[in-house]
Amino acid sequence: MKTSTSLKEMKQRHEAITMITAYDYPSAKQAENAGVDMILVGDSLGMVVLGYDSTVPVTVDDMIHHGKAVVRGAKQTFVVIDMPFMSYHISPEETMKQAKRMIQETGAQAIKVEGAKEVITTIGKLTNAGIPVVAHLGLTPQSVQVLGGYRVQGKDKEAAQQLIDEALAVQASGAISLVLECVPAPLAKLIASRLDIPVIGIGAGEHCDGQVLVYHDVLQYGVERVPKFAKIYTNMNDVVHSALQQFVAEVKTKQFPTPSHSFTMKEEVISELYG
Ligand code: KIV
Ligand code: NA
């Protein structure tokens, strides 16, 4: 099991950190067996598993339900769980209460929150309470309506400088790591070099300390299109489609089940039953 300390040491020795999302028992088990350093129970859950158009409808209860299954499937892996939309903005009391639930009820090692400004204070409070926090800057999908769409962040000098300042601020308030989403590679490189904590990129180029991708994008599983920054390593849609189509066809044509998939009983019982 990685720790915030061992993850920082990986950064220091330039060993790339791997992170992938998981949302249930099998995906968590597969991620752990593949040897990832960290698992993220992302609120991308809303889109890739629950079928919503964005991450906005996802609730704390949804996250906890799926987070528990992930932790059961990956007991040896550092699990980070997303605080969903508006669960850390209403009041400090509400934030602490929900964060406590997310950690205690799931058994995850850390939570992740999006954004800067007031969230920077929140990161400090959570850290003081003993909850490890991963920050998330750049494209922050919970604010997609404010950002005006899923687009690259920090492209001009002013926006880039702001992102650098925010990254330094989340580190200063105690974040153990930073997820940087959809920012130009040269900016991500600069931020990673300025910070001591590991910067895990998604659409942030090759110079981050680690990389995170969404499970369903990597496997092209249930998703048709994937973002430009994602790499598809296999096409599960095709694999699943042909397997399920074959099942349907074999049942229709009585090729399945065969005697090898069936149970029998003693001959004398059969003749008694049939009279
Ligand atoms: O919810 C998610 O999957 C994420 C990653 C894209 C970083 O936050
Ligand atoms: Na997320």
From TrEMBL:
Keywords: Cytoplasm, Magnesium, Metal-binding, Methyltransferase, Pantothenate biosynthesis, Transferase. It comes from the Bacteria. Its cofactor is Mg(2+). Mg(2+) binds at D43, D82, E114. One of its GO terms (biological process) is pantothenate biosynthetic process. It is found in: Cytoplasm. It is an enzyme of class 2 (transferase). One of its GO terms (cellular component) is cytoplasm. Homodecamer; pentamer of dimers. Belongs to the PanB family. Catalyzes the reversible reaction in which hydroxymethyl group from 5,10-methylenetetrahydrofolate is transferred onto alpha-ketoisovalerate to form ketopantoate. This is 3-methyl-2-oxobutanoate hydroxymethyltransferase. The gene is panB.
